[in-house]
Design goal:
The structure is a single chain. This protein is α/β, with parallel strands linked by helices. It has four domains: about 120 residues; about 290 residues, no CATH class; about 210 residues, Alpha-Beta Plaits, CATH 3.30.70.1230; about 60 residues. The longest helix has about 35 residues. The two termini are about 40 Å apart. The model has no long low-confidence stretch (mean pLDDT about 90).
Length: about 725
């Protein structure tokens, strides 16, 4: 396994362990402090309800509303019982399916005539008794009464209990399980009414700690007996079920069964209400309109009618996820409709395990996304994760009815994103420092910025890549060092040369590989990609040559030796990357391409040129330069011949130089065609020119032509073999 893979694995394991630690931390809070953020979690879920908006109900439940209109017509509450009796009779005549009261009649009707007569000890027969008439009507109509449980200890509590025609069976209950809500007293209807009703159910709506009704108890324990809510009793009667089964699991109550109908609850026997929407989602009929029998029979036939109030003065208003003021009677309508339709929302017994699993998954995903995406993407990635989880939670809640914890997973994403970003930040700082340390003196600011932007890219891995390599050397440096005879002065002198040369290389996006005494090695197109790298290498080389003139002017004034250089360039595929040992390594380039570049530089002295390039570099050039073909050779250690070209300057040659080059290249063509005599004549004419632009090249070819004239070569291909490095 190479160094880069080990480093990548090490980084992955580090961030994976960080994500696990974050998940454990969040899970610990979830397990040991589950109630701490309940209010926030509930409000987040309320937001999902509001995003979903209103949904249709089954149209099986209607509400007979004791509203302001009815109070204005029939008088203040409580009404005389004969008025309520008439409402029941009218509903029954219109074939109502079932009637349930979200009202308790805890006192006798003091406005009843018989009550008044009794008060004054007047003995008369056939005096109307409104309570008795109401009781008879209850007994002869499909009516279920409501009552209230006292859930707190008080000094004066009524201890009566209602009769329920149902059997409650508790399955799998653990010894000592006390998850059921326990009541301490009751507020029942007067015995005359309670005893004449077929059944009754409590209608306690218990808000949570934030004061919002989100769940409703379906059963409550009182005196070691289980009693049904008004909603549950309505459904029990409709399903004609006598036995109600309360199923337990290790967490508490899991569900309540009415025959084949299973109603999922929380561990306390509460149903989480899947609210249909705001107030008025169910059909409301004013009680006065029922009293006056103004409603079409078709609208009432077979319906479940809940009698309650929306009047503010009667104080049966609650806060729900949709509204802060919501009639309590409509809460029960929602519960009944939920059970009829079966679109429950619930916290399954395995939900804690699912929530903890989600916390771990989200922590790992968040950390890895933050780690393996660009630094600028971190805020956007975090927002996308938060949004994705919210969409997931929404889908699970309203498609499968499963209530997931929202707060802890969202906090986990945010916490994991912050921690991963900090780790990423410090990791990148460390990486940046390493890169700066390695490349700060080698490349330009622009290249450095590009490297830092792509710390995690593959640019630093060992690979094959096309590069243009640069070698330069100071001519006669051995003699110069002997003349100066002082190490400090020699270093100062050399730095005067190295400083401007290095600046030119980095200016043209080159990477300085190393300084070898008086020599400089550099390359283009690594580690970062450099467009037109061959042109930039040639441009940098020509500017270095031009820089010698002002440099030598300064050296001359300081009575220091003048500097002349030779430069070699070659383009080709090389191996680039971090090389060395675990104790010391460097980013460099190796291969035949590099070796050939060094050979080209060493041949500058032989050809009397300052800048030699190979045909491989020349083929990559896009800009215009003045070229002189130097030779077609095989260098030491190589069998394949290459072309060597001298780059004289940018642009086009002047008329005199162009004429010389044209004549020279004509002679080269004759030479390659083995026409040595004609070639010799041209080379000699060029050599005799006092203003010739190269002092050695013509004499080189004169000697070769003379030798080949005396000893004609067989199968001459123009290739000359260099057996030495220079």
């Amino acid at each position: 396994m190479n160094k880069h893979k080990k480093k990548a694995i090490k980084k992955f394991l580090l961030y994976f362990l960080v994500s696990i630690f974050i998940a454990i931390f969040s899970s610990a809070f979830y397990i040991f402090f589950p109630k701490l953020p309940d209010s926030i979690d509930n409000r987040l879920r309320d937001t999902l309800f509001n995003i979903r908006g209103e949904i249709p109900n089954t149209d099986n439940v209607i509400i007979i509303d004791i509203d302001e209109k009815s109070l204005n017509s029939l008088g203040q509450w409580p009404w005389q019982r004969n008025k309520i009796t008439k409402i029941l009779e009218n509903l029954t005549q219109n074939d109502i399916g079932l009637i349930a009261f979200d009202i308790v009649f805890a006192e006798e009707d003091n406005s009843s005539p018989h009550k008044i007569f009794e008060e004054y000890n007047i003995q008369r027969e056939n005096i109307p008794n409104y309570d008795l008439d109401f009781a008879k009507t209850i007994a002869n109509t499909p009516t279920i009464l409501g009552y209230i449980f006292e859930l707190e200890e008080k000094k004066h509590l009524t201890q009566g209990s209602p009769e329920i025609p149902a059997i409650f069976v508790e399955k799998n209950k653990q010894l000592g399980d006390s998850s059921l809500i326990k009541a301490h007293g009751t507020i029942l209807n007067i015995p005359l009414l309670q005893n004449n009703s077929y059944s009754s159910g409590f209608f306690n709506n218990i808000p949570d700690n934030s004061g919002i009704v989100r769940s409703v108890p379906l059963i409550i324990s009182y005196d070691d007996m289980i009693y049904p809510s008004l909603s549950l009793e309505v459904l029990r009667i409709l399903t004609q079920t006598r036995k109600v089964v309360v199923n337990y699991d290790e967490q508490g109550i899991a569900n309540i069964s009415l025959g084949d109908l299973k109603i999922p609850t929380d561990r306390y026997g509460r149903i989480l209400v899947n609210f249909r929407g705001k107030e008025g989602n169910f059909k409301y009929y004013s009680a006065i309109d029922i009293y006056e029998n103004k409603i079409d029979k078709k609208e009432l036939e077979g319906k479940i009618a809940l009698i309650g109030t929306s009047a503010a003065g009667l104080l049966d208003l609650r806060a729900t996820p949709f509204e802060s003021v919501y009639p309590g009677v409509e809460v029960h309508a929602n519960v009944i409709d939920n059970i009829i339709k079966g679109d429950f929302i619930y916290k399954a017994s395995w939900i804690d395990g699912a929530n903890i699993t989600l916390i771990f998954l989200l922590s790992i995903i968040t950390v890895l996304i933050i780690t393996y995406t660009p630094f600028w993407f971190n805020p956007l990635g975090t927002v996308l994760l938060l949004g994705s989880f919210t969409v997931f939670t929404y889908h699970v809640l309203f498609t499968y009815g499963i209530v997931l914890n929202i707060f802890f997973p969202l906090v986990t994403i945010i916490f994991a994103a912050i921690v991963a970003t900090l780790f990423d930040y410090f990791y990148e700082i460390k990486q940046e420092e390493a890169i700066k340390k390695k490349f700060a003196a080698k490349v330009s600011k622009e290249v450095m910025d590009n490297l830092l932007k792509n710390i995690d890219s593959t640019e630093f891995q060992a690979m094959e890549k096309e590069v243009t390599v640069f070698f330069s050397d100071v001519r006669g440096f051995t003699n110069i060092s002997e003349q100066m005879n002082d190490a400090k002065k020699l270093i100062s002198y050399l730095n005067q040369y190295m400083e401007p040369m290095s600046n030119i290389i980095t200016k043209f996006e080159g990477t300085i590989d190393k300084y070898i005494g008086d020599a400089i090695m550099a390359y283009w197109n690594a580690p970062a990609d450099v467009k037109n790298h061959a042109d930039k290498a040639v441009s940098a080389s020509l500017y270095q040559i031009k820089e010698l003139e002002p440099l030598n002017d300064r050296l001359k004034k300081e009575n220091k030796p003048l500097i002349d250089i030779g430069i070699g360039l070659n383009t080709g595929v090389a191996i680039v990357g971090e090389m060395g040992s675990s104790l010391r390594s460097d980013y460099t380039v190796i291969g035949d391409t590099i070796n050939l570049g060094a050979r080209l530089e060493s041949l500058c002295k032989y050809y009397d040129s300052k800048l030699n390039i190979s045909n491989f570099t020349k083929e990559k050039l896009n800009e215009e330069y003045i070229f002189r073909f130097l030779d077609y050779v095989t260098v030491k250690g190589k069998s394949k011949p290459i072309e060597i070209w001298q780059v004289i300057d940018f642009g086009k040659a002047n008329e005199v130089l162009q004429k010389e080059l044209d004549l020279y290249h004509k002679a080269i063509k004759l030479y390659k065609d083995s026409n040595f005599k004609e070639a010799l004549k041209i080379f000699e004419d060029l050599e005799n020119n006092e203003n010739k632009s190269n002092k050695k090249i013509y004499n080189i070819y004169i000697e070769r032509c003379k030798e080949f004239i005396l000893n004609p070569p067989k199968d001459f291909n123009g290739v000359y073999q260099h057996n030495t490095k220079a």
